[in-house]
Amino acid sequence: MFHRRTEEGGLVHAFFVLPRHCNSMGIVHGGMLSTFFDGVVAGAVGRVTGGMSVTIHLSLDFLSMARAGEWVYGEGRVTRQTRDLVFVEGRIYIGEKDILRGSGVFKPMRKKAE
Q: Max Cα separation, the chain?
């Protein structure tokens, strides 16, 4: 359902909006956009750390809407990394119009000692 492609600025994520992604008002459900955003910024963390991580915090600002039949794109970037946490920001957009902007904090997971 989600697509990815590499571009000059990094990795771009996308999905094609189907009616099942929409709420009763005919716009993409906020939960769908939140889930998509979480995956987009988690991907940015994974590219930097080379491993898995868990979401500690997300802050989202819904700026506009998307409807069935549109392609929705997302991109994220790491803004800061400490030993235990990774900070990210990103956006979801259609063409030149931002649908959502947000930021997050992730905790990289380390493998258990055997």
A: 52
Taking residues 33-45, report their average pLDDT: 95
pLDDT tens-place string over residues 43-83:
999 999 999 999 999 999 999 999 999 999 999 999 999 99
Are the C-beta atoms of 57 and 105 separated by less than 8 Å? yes
On whether the CB atoms of residues 55 and 61 are closer than 8 A, the answer is: no
13: which strand partners?
4, 74
User: Which residues have a Cβ under 8 Å from the Cβ of 9 and sit 6 or more positions away?
Assistant: 75
Query: Distance between CA 10 and CA 26 in Å, rounded?
Result: 31
Predicted TM-score (pTM) of the model is 0.88
**Nearest alpha-carbon partner for 54 in 96, 85, 90, 32:** 85
Q: Domain 3-108 has what CATH class?
A: alpha beta
108 pairs with which residues across the strands? Answer: 53
Q: What pLDDT, on the 0 to 100 scale, is given for residue 4? A: 63
